[in-house]
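#struct-help
A.M.: can someone run this one for me? Single chain, 147 residues.
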Amino acid sequence: MAITRWDPFREVVALQNRMNSLFRDMNDGGEAPLTTASFVPAVDVYEDDKKVMLKLEVPGVEEKDLDVSVENNTLTVKGERKFEKEEKEENFHRIERRYGGFFRAFTLPSTVDTEHVQASYNAGVLKLELTKRPEAQPKQIKINVAA
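D.P.: on it. Structure tokens below:
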């Protein structure tokens, strides 16, 4: 039997976040139908000695609906997954996939060269490759042995 920590405010915080999201969506113009909601794509961030990599899951988003920019050491990814009305809405039994616009912003470390950012898109995954500045990359130092 596992003991879990009980947080009495967890549900309240989740409800508050959802309400804030609903009001924010209503104030943005409300062009999307009520059956859609914005989503936040999952992202993996990792780095090695020479670069920082980001992979965002954005299935169903076309390349033309993605916008990637860097300004003041902030990497911004915006996009939109559009709801396709091939069927009448009343024929749906469930709509679980999220549609609408999304926005992700990442503060970049000073070691990243913002002039050399590469983006590629394949099979619903947006891959961003940020090269580190040469002075930030590790250098191997040779050790001289005294005789």
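A.M.: thanks! The two ends are 64 Å apart (CA to CA).
D.P.: also worth noting: Residues 23 and 30 are 10 Å apart (CA to CA).
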